[in-house]
Each structure stands twice: as C-alpha cells, then as structure tokens.
C-alpha cells in the first residue's frame, strides 16, 4: 500500500508539472528561445553544433533541443517541453534528499520549489538555466552520498553533475568553487559549533569503477565540445570562453548590469520561502543542526555573494542560486513546528506557499509579457501574433501558403529566424542595401527604417504598429497585403498608400 508520505510527494510533483505545462504556448517565444531554436536549425543543416566560445553557453542544451525537434517537429511546445519535464524532475530530485534531511523537510522544500514564481516561469522557457539547476541538485545529492554511503551510484551522480555543468554554461566555475570552499568553511565552524554528524562510510567502489566514470565524463565533454567528434577546431573554446566572459562581465557595456543587491530584490519581491531560507541560514550556526543543511547554506551563501559581486546579471540565474535555501526553509519550518506550535507554523508556511503560488499564477498566466515584472526580461510581446497567427492559419488552410514572401528589415532577427523557419521565402534584407522595390506579401520593418522602406513600396498594405520585445525602446511597423490578410485584421485598420497611388 502506498503510504501517505508517497501520496504527498506525488501530489507535489503533479502540481509542479501542471503549473509548468499548462498553456505552454501562451507567451511568445523569448528572444533567447529564438536564438536557441535557430542554432538547432543550423545543426539540422550542418549535422552538428559548432561551439562558439563567445556565445556564453555550452553545447548540451542544443543537442537536447535538436533531438526533441527532430523527433517531434518544430513548435514552441516541442522546444519548451524538455525544460518542463526537467524542471519537474528538479522538484523530484529535491524529494530524493529525504535520506539525508528527512521526508518532511524535503517535501516542504519541494513544495516551495514547485510553486516558486522563478522556478515555474523559467521552467517554461527553452533556455539553459534549468539544466544548471538540475546538475547542481545532482551534485548536492551525490557528494554527501559519496561521503557517507560510498556507493558507486553516488560517484556517478557527482561526476555526471559536474560534467553536466561544464557542458551547460561557463558559470559552472562559480558553483564548483563555491562547493569546494564550503567544505573548509564547514569544517572550521564545526570546531566551534558541532552539527549532527554525517560520518564517512568508506569507498565501496574500485579504482576501475572510478576510471570508467572519469573516462565517460571526459568523453562526454569532448563529444559535446567537438560537435560529436566532427568539429575538433571548436575544442579550445572550452577554455577560451572565460576570456570573453570576464571581459563582458566587467566592461559595463552589455546593458545587463545590475546593483549588487539585485538578487535580494528578486527574493523580496517574488521568492518568499527562499528568502526565509536565506535568513534561516543563521539557524544553521546553532549546534546540532543537520550537517548537510549547514553545508548547503554555506554553499548557497557563497554562490549568492559571488553572483552579487558580478555586475552582469540576468534574472533567470536566480533559479541556480536559491535552491539551497529551500532545504533550509524546510528545516526551519519543521524545527519551528517542534519548538513553537505545529498549527501556527503550518498556517504561516501555508500562507507563504500560497502567496508564492499566487504570484506565480499571476506572473505566468496573466503578466507574462509585462516588463514591469523583473522576471519578464527581454520578452517578446504578443504584438508579434498579429503576424504569426495569420501566417499559421494560412499555412494550415493551404500548405502552399508556406511559400508566402516576406521581408523582415530588423536590427535583430530573433526570435523570428526560428519562428518563421518553415517559410523559406522570408528574408532579412540589410537596411543599408535595399533593392529598388520591396513589395511582398508582408513586411516587418524597424521604425527607424520605415522612411527608407516606404518610398520603395508600390502596393497598398494594411499598416500596423507593433512592439517586439521588452527592455527595449525599439518598435516596428507591420505591412500586410490586403488580398491575403484581409480576413485577419479589423476592417478599420489603417492602410499605407504608395506614393504613386497618392499622385493619382
């Protein structure tokens, strides 16, 4: 018979999955999703991913997306579903820490992660950061098991977690250093305030086992950074990326610079359980607290300080920073219930999680393109649907409509280069080298280039003003040829009249 604890864990996982998968195509493809999808399209054409050290992201995520897109086709659901499943798996991995921290602590931590605004919001994006979270959780689960139980599976977990970080994103260095430095800090403080011991259990694997693990991990790193062994010239990028990364992080020219307290702002606005966990880390200083919880609190604080010191900050990185504090939050709740009053603490915990759920629901299903929300960052606006929805409906109505001609005269092509990848007659002319005539079935033009484009048009068009993405002042004008798009715009939509027509 399934125990009550198992039912609770299953319901938490179901909640996590439901929040991440519901209306998955509601928000348009993010700028970075368009970039990632475009890279996947290039892999389809050339047969491998050419790693670029200036891209700041490892190759692994692209291979996952390539596999998904090859098996299930090109759509926003396919692009995002691997991360939906992975983000739900991260909640499951939190529950797996129960053998170290206890069932209730881990269930509370998992619930906080399941409803977290950041975890849900970025668990619905086809970007790299959820892989960072997963591999960090895997390391955090594997290392204490390797120390205490010494079994081979914990060796694999730790090694694959480290390998996964390396093939995912260059910021792995920060986290590995934080993991490493947390150990002497923990040992030093143990002399002042001993925690509940997690004794060394001895190794239960052979040197041959360790050699197989090391060879496998090295092989995986080589495979992904050499395009499946087809592009060995890209391998030096594995270490060359740090030169570009450091320059970008310190040059103050990226537009992503934030104050040092930026992460604390995010926690205070969105992540209340994690904020309680951060403050509750002070409880870890008290004697007879779980050693692993103390270690994770030290590691989490170290990583947070390091990220705070770096000026270059993007909000999705928060999910790889706050996960240790969920465990501290769970510990604080359980211990406070024992020391104060179970029902009072349960009520406070429920309010915190319900508040987090409410923020998450509003953010993910209502304000998902509102750039007043700090998590809504360089997000594509729904204005793009004025072009995408008619094109999709026309293509479904008649596949010949995939041959519709279009010009996108834009400073930035993403996410359109992926979103419109099934339409081969769409091009991206250089605004400085325009042909004598530009007439097509539709045009999307940066407002800065409208004065260059309109004198070259000879046909009448519906004319709509659209805003492409947040955190940007750029806007664009959409031109739709009436014989094709008349059924998709309001009857009173403004029209562009060519100069030749005005002269008549």
What do you see in this structure?
By secondary structure, the chain is mostly helical. The protein has two domains: 28-365, no CATH class; 382-503, no CATH class. It has helices at 4-21, 31-46, 60-72, 76-95, 98-101, 103-115, 117-122, 129-148, 152-166, 172-190, 207-225, 237-250, 262-269, 272-280, 291-309, 319-339, 342-365, 385-397, 416-419, 450-453, 482-485, 499-503; strands at residues 406-409, 426-427, 442-446, 461-466, 476-480, 495-496. It has a six-stranded mixed beta sheet. α4 (76-95) packs parallel to α8 (129-148) and α10 packs across α15. The chain is globular and about 85 Å long.
Name the features:
57% helix, 504 residues, globular, mainly alpha, 6-stranded mixed β-sheet
Summarize the structure.
The protein has 504 residues and is mainly alpha-helical. It contains 22 helices and six strands. Helix 16 (319-339) packs antiparallel against helix 17 (342-365).
Topology, element by element:
Elements: H1 4-21, H2 31-46, H3 60-72, H4 76-95, H5 98-101, H6 103-115, H7 117-122, H8 129-148, H9 152-166, H10 172-190, H11 207-225, H12 237-250, H13 262-269, H14 272-280, H15 291-309, H16 319-339, H17 342-365, H18 385-397, E1 406-409, H19 416-419, E2 426-427, E3 442-446, H20 450-453, E4 461-466, E5 476-480, H21 482-485, E6 495-496, H22 499-503
Parallel strand pairs: 1-2, 1-3
Antiparallel strand pairs: 3-5, 4-5, 4-6
Helix content: 55-70%
Shape label: globular
Q: What's the story with the biggest beta sheet?
A: 6 strands, mixed
Structural class by SSE content: mainly alpha
Q: Please count the beta strands (DSSP E, at least 2 residues each).
A: 6
Which sequence of strands runs across the widest sheet? 2-1-3-5-4-6
SSE string: HHHHHHHHHHHHHHHHHHEHEEHEEHEH
Query: What's the rounded overall pLDDT mean?
Result: 92
Which spans have pLDDT < 50 for at least 5 consecutive residues? none
* Number of helices, counting only DSSP H or I runs of 4 residues or more: 22
Radius of gyration: 26 Å
Total tally of structural domains: 2
- Which oligomeric form is depicted? single chain
Distance between the termini: 84 Å
In percent terms, what proportion of residues is strand?
under 5%
